[in-house]
Amino acid sequence: MSIAPEGIEREYPLARLTTVRTGGHADLFARPSSAGELVELLRFAEADALEVGVVGSGSNLLVADEGFRGLAMKLDGALAQTERDGDHLLCGGGARLPQAAARAAREGLTGLEFGVNIPGTVGGAVRMNANAYGGDLARVLDWVDVATAQGAERRGPDQLGFAYRRSNLAQGEVVAGASFALAPADPTDVKATLADMRSKRRAVQPSGIKTFGSTFKNPDDPRAEGRSAGVLLDEAGCRGLQVGGARFSDKHANFVENGGEATTADVIALMAEGRRRVREHAGVELEPEVQLLGRVDTSELWA
Ligand SMILES: Cc1cc2nc3c(=O)[nH]c(=O)nc-3n(C[C@H](O)[C@H](O)[C@H](O)COP(=O)(O)OP(=O)(O)OC[C@H]3O[C@@H](n4cnc5c(N)ncnc54)[C@H](O)[C@@H]3O)c2cc1C
Questions:
Q1: How far apart are CA 232 and CA 252, in angstroms?
Q2: pLDDT score for 207
Q3: Angle ∠(171,173,174) on CA atoms, nearest 5
Q4: Domains along the chain?
Q5: Which of 17, 20, 121, 215 could form a disulfide with 56 if both were Cys (CB 3.0 to 4.6 A apart)?
Q6: 165 belongs to the catalytic site
């Protein structure tokens, strides 16, 4: 192994960096706090043929029970901050989207309100093409800085291959920062919109539970007849269904909830049963939205 950059920790528990709180350790873990440190870590990983995994807020992430045999990273310091630049909000890839939305509101900038209920980071949101309430990340995204072992490169939204809950960012390509092009507005109005969105969300989604949000994508399949994944799961009798310590939430059937003792294997087994029931009930094949880190055995899901 080449000489590891400073600050790398070994056997780092990842479950606490995810919102569902399952999964094992990363062999190596680091918190880069500048673009330079990030590129140095990516170079080290490439030189040693180590897999790289970025953890944002872990709000859409399922870590293998056996952990991750590579270098996991969480962006920190300058890579997790926000800064106003005229009508733009410059954000580190590790900045949290709800905080960025709140900062924009305080600054009297509109356009980022949709982020208030997405409990992820800017980098995770770009990677996942996150959106909510018709707000569209691509519509306000001006550019992103993508770091690789070769250095950092600026890309526009049209270069990111955005589609429903996906982008073309590859393994080892890390969103170090992004700029959002916003418009001036009255801070009181923008704050009121945020408050309204928060309360609407509270009414329909469970809060205070260990979950990664939507488990499956809403299907693009005529047999679904416009029904969301949550409605299909509900109709197939999955609301409250439990496997081990994991269950589909009573309040929102597309949310998996860790009752405290769930393993990632429990979550996968529950997802497999949900998929099977929806296939039998409606003839629709649901596709997972949640991302995996480490070697998660998903064979049961596709059986
Ligand atoms: C209660 C709840 C509600 C949710 N509501 C919504 C919603 O309304 N709309 C929506 O779209 N999503 C929603 N989500 C899902 C989730 O918040 C989003 O997908 C979010 O964008 C994930 O960001 P993250 O930082 O948590 O990414 P993580 O879960 O940490 O990672 C997800 C993927 O992004 C990659 N990634 C993370 N950071 C970076 C980076 N800097 N560079 C490159 N890749 C990176 C990871 O490697 C992984 O592949 C919800 C989740 C929860 C728990």
A1: 11
A2: 84
A3: 120
A4: 9-77 (3.30.43.10), 82-204 (3.30.465.10), 222-298 (3.90.78.10)
A5: 121
A6: yes
130 in contact with ligand 1, CB cutoff 6 A: yes
| Residue with CA at minimum distance from ligand 1 atom 12 | 130
**DSSP summary character for residue 218:** P
- According to the model, what pLDDT value does residue 22 have? 98
**Contacts of 152 by beta carbon, 8 Å cutoff, 6+ apart:** 35, 39, 145, 146, 176
> Is 166 tagged catalytic?
no
Q: What is the pLDDT, as a whole number, of residue 134?
A: 67
pLDDT score of 302: 87
Cβ–ligand 1 distance for 122 under 6 Å, the answer no
- pLDDT recorded at residue 1: 66
Strands, DSSP E only, in 14-93? 25-30, 52-54, 61-63, 68-73, 82-85, 88-92
Please list the ranges in the chain whose pLDDT falls under 50: none
Instruction: Select from 235, 303, 294 the least CA-distant residue to 273.
Output: 303
Query: 56 alpha carbon to ligand 1 midpoint, in Å?
Result: 7
- In one letter, which amino acid is 302? W
Structure tokens at 10: 């070994």
Q: What is the pLDDT of residues 67-106, one digit of tens each?
A: 999 999 999 999 999 999 999 999 999 999 999 999 999 9
- Under DSSP, the state recorded for 216 is B
The backbone region for 264, taken as left when phi is positive above 0, alpha when psi lies in -120 to 50, beta otherwise, is alpha
Active-site option among 37, 214, 249, 277: 214
What is the pLDDT at residue 31?
98
Burial track 184-220 (b if 16+ CB lie within 10 A, e otherwise):
ebeeeebeebbeebeeeeeeebeeebbbbbbbbbbbe
The total of other beta-carbon atoms located within 10 Å of residue 154's CB is 12
Query: For position 135, what pLDDT does the model report?
Result: 67
Both tokens of residue 93? 């890839």
